[in-house]
DNA sequence: ATCGGGTGATCGCAGTTCGTTATCGGTCCA
DNA sequence: TGGACCGATAACGAACTGCGATCACCCGAT
């Protein structure tokens, strides 16, 4: 069995097919023509010696062997891209590179304090921060696309391959235009709300659903948005109010403030998450920079 | 900064240049012409945005940034090659793949017992075994080319990034043709010996040197060979005797036997070694299959 | 039954990449 | 001052990788 003619491109395309759930869809996602994808995946399968996808009649499937290969390939591709990216950002030779995902809900002074501690201990190390939803974070932790995640700790967010450690808890408050000085549970009943769409804010929305029903609330949601910036913009425009963890008050735009609601104080816990499968000394040091 | 045009080839060539200590030497090692190497490394440097090698006047050097990149690149390349290799060997979809390096001196029933335990616990996992010298093993552990090593534990074999755990100790004996029944310290003074070359058997030879001088021996070495098979062949041919750990008696060819030397019993310890930097659950499970 | 709309595979062709040989300019050492 | 070494460059052929056009197939809706 000679040396492989497989390259990074083969991994990338094959993964894209698996993710997109089809060759044509993968080609679209990759912005190339479909035959190129077909050809590359065929070459990969020939080289490996077994089919990765079953594409007879109707829907297509991933073989067992293919699934194993894809798991490895994802990790490899992530490692590769990180190698390039870390070096490009950092032509001066810093040691180490960590990619962190965090929920918009998790921005807070605790995070920057931990980053400060870590930077003092490892001055040369690059830390790359990316905002993403809790669900995306779990997926990316498993594929190695991110090393550490700060996410909303929630019963529905658990995975055997991912370890979690709670970092802090905070109360949820109401985000209102700066002019407003007080809120009450009764006010909330009559108010309109702007919220993140469930696709992107699943855990948070689920958590709020529970908190609402416990208080006997069923707030009317008049607007949903994908990004937190858009939500805040709508609130500033007077379209409605929204809920946000009080610990993230610093990241509010100047036109808004956050108020606790008397007699209603749902809690939210932010946890640090990391893969149990891939771990390094550097990541360990990073985690230890964040006290529980 | 657009998407990289760097591929696995770029990593491979760049690493080869660093390892070979020059472009021409790398080209030879890769079995391609030198300009191809020059071009590829240049492309890599352009893409990354900084020089990896300094090749002005006379000797060439690796830049600091280049060293960082190379460290990452080695790990990435190892991950890539493992992904391909593991899938190729195993078209039926076993889960997991471990690459083990072991010294020829370490072949013994302890190793196979541990492998048996591990295979029972992880039936689907491929374990790939490669013979290599202790020094090579240390290098390969750091680059991720092997996951676990069984090596000759020796004071000169230590590295901050590599953890070690002694697995067993054994006495060193003399390998002789099957016809011989007894040996003595005096016999050794007058005998000729066949040994492994120091390049490949550095730790073992160092250990023997000490044991010789303690017994007041200075055996005449009439022949040196690279591989243990060749050494044994020479012994079987009657060229001379050699020393070998008694625990590895099973791996002797039928024409030879191993005898302890009365009043001279140097010990040798085999340790399991692994990288502290890259670790996984599977490797942990593997290690735990080998009792101390 | 047959016609669109979907899948992925195949074919032939172009641009790019990759490797080759030949050659150049440089340093080092005899 | 040659000669042996190094790495960079140039020109060219082969291979790779992309493209559009097309094919064969399955499906569901006329």
From TrEMBL, chains A, B:
Q: Which Pfam families match?
A: HTH_1, LysR_substrate
Q: Which UniProt keywords apply?
A: DNA-binding, Transcription, Transcription regulation
Q: Its domain of life?
A: Bacteria
The protein's matches in InterPro entries, at most eight in alphabetical order, are given as: LysR_HTH_N (IPR000847), LysR_subst-bd (IPR005119), WH-like_DNA-bd_sf (IPR036388), WH_DNA-bd_sf (IPR036390)
For whether the record's keyword set contains DNA-binding, the answer is yes
Q: Which GO terms describe its cellular component?
A: protein-DNA complex
Lyase as a keyword of this entry, yes or no, is no
In what residue span(s) does the HTH lysR-type domain sit? 6-63
One MF annotation (Gene Ontology) recorded for this entry: DNA binding
| Family statement | Belongs to the LysR transcriptional regulatory family.
Q: What is this protein called?
A: HTH lysR-type domain-containing protein
Organism annotation: Thioclava indica
